[in-house]
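Below is one protein, fold included:
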Amino acid sequence: MKLTVGNQAPHFVLPDQIGNNHSLSDYQGKWVLLYFYPKDDTPGCTTEACQIRDNFSAFKKAGIMVFGVSTDSVKSHDKFVKKFDLPFLLLADEDKKVVELYGVWAKKKFMGREYTGILRTSFLINPVGKIARIYEQVKPDGHAAEILKDVKTVSV
């Protein structure tokens, strides 16, 4: 099933970069940005993460919990967080259940080669757990500013 705005966001439990589990239901009553990205410490993913980091005080002020999700390991996430001093949590979906639930695990093409991977997609989830915005084919540069602008215009 393809997720659309207004759908209940699928439930998940995933470990963060230090191994603590987080569930979407733990954050009921808060805005949540769930951003899916292909791989730790790659150029586009680093740009996206660092722009969120650089705007993190605005995310906090807007009351938005930020979670980056990829299929990288807890250990890989820990290195990425430490290398770039990321102030938000990265969740490890090593068994690919959550990327499949959210419909972001799909066939991709790069330089003529076809493979399966994460489509760079973000979901802004409102305080009652419904999807308020879906960002597909995210451009890493400027995405943080786009979300901060949009959160002012979406309602619960």
